[in-house]
Structure formats: structure tokens, C-alpha cells
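worker-03 picked up job from queue 'complexes'. Input manifest follows; two sequence lines, order preserved.
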Amino acid sequence: MSLNEVDLFDVVKKQVKFKFFSYHIIWISLIFTQFFGILMSSVVIQPTDPTGPYSETVITINTFDSTFLMIMTYVWIVAMAVFLGLATTKRSDFGFVTTRLSQFLSTIVMLIILAVVGAITVYLGNSLISLILMIFQAGIPMSTQFTFLAHVANVTGVFGYLLLYAAVTYLAISLFQLNRFVLPGLLVLNVLTINLASTYQLNHPLRKLTKFFGEETSILVFVLKVVIVTTILFVSAWLVTRNREVVS
Amino acid sequence: MNFGFFIPLLLIILLTYGLVQVSKRNKTRPKFRISRKMSLFIPIGYMVVLVIATVIIYVIPVNKESEYQPVEQSSVDMYNDNYTLLHEGKLDEVNPTFIIREWHQGVTDQKLLIKTQTLGGIPVSIIIERIPGNSDIIDSFLFEGKLIMDDFEVKGYNDDVIISPNANEIIIWDKGVRSFKLAYFQYDMIMTQFTSGRSYDNNHSTAEWQPTLYLKVPESIEVTIDESIKEQVIEL
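worker-03 finished. Artifact:
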């Protein structure tokens, strides 16, 4: 117990600052994963069959997209949630005057920051893919049909998915640290429910969850869903970890 | 191509790697280190590259010399209407802006031969309108062809067509098979989700109208057409 009362906000702020500036691996890995995603997006094409109404003309239309970049960013945030959730990383947090709550809050804030950075870099990465394609692909018209709001919705949507992945992973890691058998147990449960769902021709809960987010076309409702679900996930993670020893 | 199946695979690999690292956490040391300075410069450099790329993409003007130019559906419809008029023999009603070449050719012996220099078809359709009289002058008009790929028009589509009026002959050929490549960049599926699927449409459409050579030939002139191109000639 400290003789001086320390403001929780100040401690969280210091810890977030520490994590932001000290864990270089976070930023270096972001660049590597996204760069890989950008390169893959620039070479992976969806070709259409060369066609032509007349035999004298051969038309080929190739489509490039930034899906691979986004997938790599999902992978990155999952890896970083694992990294921040691991006991090894958490130990360094306790070099400060730290409680379990401040440590938890700083990790959550850091995950939110990572989701923001991830969403912005994915969005800007689209431009880099476009530029690479403009340089190396002849005849690539740029799509200008989207409104400003559509672009904002895109960044917000990517942020929402990144935050969801981060929250799910953080909860999974918290459960893993509580008991090493929880994750294998969940995997077995997942396989069982898939089997049961296919046997009785029911919708698998994961499919329902995918539809819950993936089929939402209103960005406002989507954001609301993300806020509610991530809050539930983070609160669950807090309930799992709050009574644990300070150093795992 | 759907890469969705990669996600669970990569997640499982990462989780397994993470769990293995946890189990031997005190035994490992980082195999390589990046200096503090470098680890600061690399992310800043990356962000600078991304920002510059974005600025370039949004600031550079639309290239007027590009092979592909955006085209409005209304102008395609207008072109199509004129194309139909031409094929109905109503040359006088056709918008003259679509006539890209016009010439008057004199023939001797009241004979005209239309042929090609190469094997196979020719890159134009031919319409022959018979006009009364016994003049030895043939009026020729080349109506432009169009190739529309989705919302883009291919510039220079008519450049490969070679028509050589020569004494009593019209020789038509092209420079070889015309080949056009168009590449699109689409945003990721999230953009699709909130734009009702507009960004992620692989159903591309192409429409091609060959150039049309319209010949006004006096009835007194005997026209002979090469066997190999007869199918491409319409006699009104």
C-alpha cells in the first residue's frame, strides 16, 4: 500500500504512454504485416476470362482489392492482443505504481489506440496499393464514386472489426491465463456445436454472430453493436483477471 | 478470390506460437534487436510513405492521355442510336461528329473491288447503299467504332483500322488482334458492407461496336466483294 494517493487516471496515462513508446515490436510488426498485405494485394488478382464480342478483340479485366491488407491487419491486432495480454508483457507494467485495474485499463486503452492506428493505416494503405498499381499496371482507372461519408464509414467499419478481434483475443488470453485448459475446451465446444448444428440443421452460433456484424449495412447500428459487444468482452476479461495475483 | 479461409488458419498459427512462447517465456531472448532510433524512424517513415501515396492519388489530375476515359451512359446511348440509324441506311440523320473519315473515290470501268490484305475478317462492318445514277464517284464515310469496358471508353480503338482506297479497290485490314487490358482496384469488403455492395462487383461488362464503313455507290458500278469478308457486308 502506497503512502501517497495516486490518481488512477495518471497511472493509466503513464502506462499507456509507456506501452505506446516502449513496445517497438508493435509498430515494427504493423509495418511488416501491412507491407506484406499491400504487396499481396498488389499482385493477387481476380481475372475475368478474356472475352470479346468479335474475334478481332481480346479484352482482359483484372480486379485487385485490399482484402489481403485488411486480413493481415486483423492478424496483427490479434497478435498484439496476445502480446499485451501475456503475463510476460504485463510484468513490466508493474514497474509503476500499479493496480490490477490500472494495468487492465491501460491495456484496453492501448488496444483501442492500436485499432485506431490499424484502421487509419489500412485506409491509407489502400492509396499505396492504388499507387503501386498505377505505376505497374497499364490502364487502371481510379474509383471515384464513393462519397466522403462512405470513406468515413469504411475507416469506422475497419476500426470496429479490429476492436472486436482485439477484444475477443484479449478475453481468450485472459481465460487461458486463468486456466490452460479453457482454450482447448472452447475449441472442443466449438467443434461439437458445429457437429450438432450440422446434424440438426441449425444455424451455428458463430454464423449467427458473423451475420450479426457482417450483414449490418448501417454504420451507426454497426458501431452500436461493436460498442456493446466489446464492452461485454472487456468486462468479462476484467472479471476473469481482477482477482489474480499481480505477477502471474 | 476469397481469402477468408486464411483467417482461422493464421489465427491458429499465431495463437499456437503465442502459447508456446508463454510456456517458455523466461528462456527466450529476442534474436535480433533494432536500435531505439531505428524503431522510431521506421514507423514514422511508413506513415510518411502512406500519407504521400494518399496525397498523390487524390491530388494528381485525371490523365487526359490515358487509354481509358470515363464515359457517361447517356453518351453511349446517343452513340448507339446513331449506330442504329446508320445501319438503317439513314446516313443523313447521323450526327457528323461520329464520322471520323470521309473521302470520295473515283473508279474506272465502273468496277469496285472490296478486299482485305490479311486472312480472316476485317475490323469494320461495311454498309453499301446503292444510289441512282451512273456516276463513277463513290462517297465513303467511316463511322467510328467504340469499345466500352464498364464505365470506361477505350481511346484509340479505331486506330488499328487501315483502309486504303486505291484505284478500283478498297483494301481493308488491321494491325493485328486488338488486345485491351483493364485493371480495377477495389476497396476491401468493409467498404462493400456499408455501400450496399457497390465497391465489390466482379460482374464486368464490355460492349463493342465495330467501326462502320458506309459506301454510297452509284447503281451503275459493279461491286465485287472478297469471299472472306462477305459476311461483314450489308447491302441496303
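worker-03 released lock.
Residues 16 and 132 of chain B are 87 Å apart (CA to CA).
The mean pLDDT of chain B is 80.
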